[in-house]
What we know:
Elements: E1 4-12, H1 15-31, E2 37-39, E3 46-56, H2 60-73, E4 77-89, E5 92-101, H3 106-120, E6 133-139, H4 142-154, E7 160-164, E8 166-173, E9 180-188
Antiparallel strand pairs: 1-3, 1-8, 2-6, 4-5, 4-7, 5-6, 8-9
Amino acid sequence: MIEEWRTFCAIELTYDVRTRLQDHVRRLREAVPDSSASWSKPENVHLTLKFFGNVPTQSLSKISAACSRVAEEFRSFQISIGGTGVFPRRSRPQVLWVGVEDSSGGLLDLQGRLEEEFAREGFPREDRGFRPHLTIARLRKPEDARKLAETHIQTRFALTAMQVNELVLFRSQLSPKGSIYTVISKHALP
Length: 190
């Protein structure tokens, strides 16, 4: 039997961004304490660039090599974390997110190159466009989701600059207490 790991490639957040996310979530939970949301732990929030799903462990070296090749092509660049929104739409919110601004275009270029390299290694391309965001909660009950979503949108998350200087390949293990993420490999942007 072939062992498979649930895998994704992402950018880790800085301590400052995680602290601000934690504060934002605390304010939302205090404002709407009875909401039925599954909250992301701040230490588990990443900027996901590619989610692979279950991958045979023998294929992990291909993914890691592709990450290394792409990382070598890029220099460290800056993005901004800020703004709030919901998916799929405001009238039927299911996910609360904090936005990512990419004024340099570096993030979009990086993600596009990763897609190309992963496709060369046999992993299918995403069939939808890349929309960088940080998921902070999934809403479970539509009847109380609107109030929480509106509070989230009204609660400002001011832009915070963050340097992108590394790609990380993670393993994700599902557990009753939430996902457990383990680093498979790290790839520095020179």
